[in-house]
Design brief:
There is one protein chain. The protein is of the alpha/beta class. It folds into 2 domains: 154 residues, Rossmann fold (3-Layer(aba) Sandwich), CATH 3.40.50; 172 residues, 3-Layer(aba) Sandwich (Rossmann fold). 44% of the residues lie in helices and 15% in strands. The protein is built from 15 helices and 12 strands. The chain has a 6-stranded parallel β-sheet with strand order 2-1-3-4-5-6, with helices on both faces. Strands 9-8-7-10-11-12 form a 6-stranded parallel β-sheet, sandwiched between helices. The two termini are 23 Å apart. The C terminus is likely disordered.
């Protein structure tokens, strides 16, 4: 039995994907009966310590190597992604950037959820051989495609017409999430209902907070901002909606995409290189407000096109199922526990 310790403070801040990814992996490992002696946020001796967040007390624990075993770090962000999300004074930002890199360098191995991060970490001085790609996943029990009668009941609960075409977006309210484009697209499609599920997880230090707060407080008539909601309710929003629209400018591997696919909800994203190696043909893409508008209208008016988008989402859900990823994680942890320096892990 592998002694595995998870260290994380991700769930202290609501409405962020890091917490969702952590909870999914922790739940999955708890289901692997007889394979792991699993502990959370404890500092007993173990074979593997998996660091999900970069707390300073976790950083200090890396210097007790014998007790920590093999140190595995989860890379949920790089300095560049923080810069686009939070408004930090220049001196603090410089110190924080150095700390992030130093934390990653203290790890024996790193796990990224998007392979495009591997060369970026290499550019920060981290050996490529230490970095492994394992994608995110979501539980089918929490995120499942509901029958039509449940979808209509959800719409009634949220006071949305059965006849309405509903577009949902999800995530923190940030400029990098493409909120301005989301709202502009909605303005050009006044006959469609738009819903953004999520809020300001980091409050006033969110980059562009004043501008975004004004939009959230006074949205167009066909746009709703729900604020931060419990993750357990997210499945309802995907099921009452006709599609997920996420016009982000920068991402890793949003849990919202996997959650929506698991509910059979079609996906429309901005045309970003980082999606190509992880989402294949499971999503649809556009690159500007006019092309977003055109794609959404096609989804609304062309039933054959829409059904193809639904099938693409379902294929994606199967590819990123928890059953398949359980095998990947079990193999990875077994390798980590058996040898100190692991050869390049290939999924």
């Amino acid at each position: 039995m592998i002694k595995l310790t998870m260290l994380s403070s991700a769930e202290k801040v609501k409405g962020q994907g890091v917490a969702s990814a952590y909870r999914e992996l922790l739940t999955l490992m708890e289901q692997q009966v007889g394979m792991y002696d699993l502990k959370v946020n404890q500092f007993d001796s173990c074979d593997i310590t998996h660091y999900h967040t970069i707390d300073f007390r976790f950083y200090l624990s890396t210097f007790f190597r014998r007790r920590r075993g093999v140190k595995v770090g989860y890379v949920h962000f790089l300095p560049e992604t923080v810069d686009e999300s939070l408004k930090l004074p220049a001196p603090i930002r410089a110190i924080f950037y150095k700390y992030v890199v130093a934390f990653y360098q203290r790890m024996d191995h790193l796990v990224v959820v998007n392979p495009t991060f591997i060369p970026k970490l290499e550019a920060l001085g981290i050996a490529k051989e230490k970095v492994h790609y394992i994608p995110n996943f979501v539980s089918k029990k929490m995120f499942k495609e509901e029958p039509e009668e449940v979808r209509w009941a959800l719409r009634e609960k949220h006071e949305i017409s059965k006849e309405a075409f509903v577009v949902v977006g999800a995530g923190q309210v940030q400029h990098r999430k493409g909120i301005l484009d989301f709202v502009e697209v909605a303005k050009q499609l006044p006959h469609i209902q738009f819903i953004w599920v999520g809020g300001f997880s980091f409050g006033k230090i969110t980059a562009g907070y004043e501008q975004l707060k004004a939009i959230v407080d006074h949205p167009p008539a066909n746009v709703r901002f729900t604020g931060i909601v419990d993750r357990e309710t997210m499945g309802a929003y995907y099921n009452l909606s006709d599609m997920l629209f996420l016009p982000s400018f920068n991402e890793l591997f949003p849990m919202t995409i996997l959650e929506a696919m698991s509910c059979g909800t079609p996906i429309l994203l901005r045309d970003l290189d980082l999606y190509q190696d992880i989402l294949f043909d499971y999503y649809y893409q556009a690159s500007s407000v006019p092309t977003f508008v055109e794609m959404i209208e096609n989804m609304r008016t062309d039933r054959d096109f829409y059904e193809q988008a639904c099938q693409a989402a379902r294929r994606g859900a199967y590819h990123y199922s928890e059953d398949r990823l359980a095998e990947v994680w079990n193999d990875f942890y077994a390798r980590m526990a058996s040898i100190k320096k692991v050869p390049v892990y290939e999924q």
